[in-house]
């Protein structure tokens, strides 16, 4: 049995937009796709940032007009990424501080996204037997 990796559970395809996309358009795209993040790509398909539902809330909290602000003003950058070959154990450890990580290939191009929801689904779908320490039955 092989060790499960990011490629086994990552979400593909992922939603990507350009940095100059207006916030209202980005939020609408996220709502239509029923997702909480999108990857902002630049040259090729390399991630320049990540825009999340939390970033969209910040726009409102700042009193900005969503049609007048662009994603690059609120996206998280530099973006942290993860390799598709990373084991799920290592990915779970790395994601303690992140909810969404773009998955990039050896060339740095985005090939998917890994979310905490993806990891939770992997745990739910696993055949791992869960035991309680000290359970003698």
TrEMBL record:
<protein>
    <submittedName>
        <fullName>CBS domain-containing protein</fullName>
    </submittedName>
</protein>
<dbReference type="InterPro" id="IPR046342">
    <property type="entry name" value="CBS_dom_sf"/>
</dbReference>
<keyword id="KW-0129">CBS domain</keyword>
<dbReference type="InterPro" id="IPR051257">
    <property type="entry name" value="Diverse_CBS-Domain"/>
</dbReference>
<feature type="domain" description="CBS">
    <location>
        <begin position="10"/>
        <end position="67"/>
    </location>
</feature>
<dbReference type="Pfam" id="PF00571">
    <property type="entry name" value="CBS"/>
</dbReference>
<feature type="domain" description="CBS">
    <location>
        <begin position="75"/>
        <end position="129"/>
    </location>
</feature>
<dbReference type="InterPro" id="IPR000644">
    <property type="entry name" value="CBS_dom"/>
</dbReference>
